[in-house]
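Sequence only, no structure available. Ideas?
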Amino acid sequence: MKIVRDIAAAALASLVLACGAAMSFLVNADGRVASVRVDHSSGQAAIDMAAYAVASGISFWPATRGGCRLPSLVAVPIAFRVVERGP
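Reply:
I predicted one. Tokens follow.
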């Protein structure tokens, strides 16, 4: 049983998780994010909140039409990779 526990502990120590959320941003004509929406939750509130925080700080080149800057809607997946390492 100790060998099984040691193997399980080693597996958990090197666990790699990939988590993320799909977000939509309303981008102002100046390229700043005006609003953020979670389109698809990661299922983890902390991951969604972190994705929201990342999205709120992103700057974009504004969309243009005929040389005029326009507000636009941008949909982007935001992924996090969490790596837990043993001692």
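DSSP finds two helices and five strands in the chain.
Hope that gets you unstuck.
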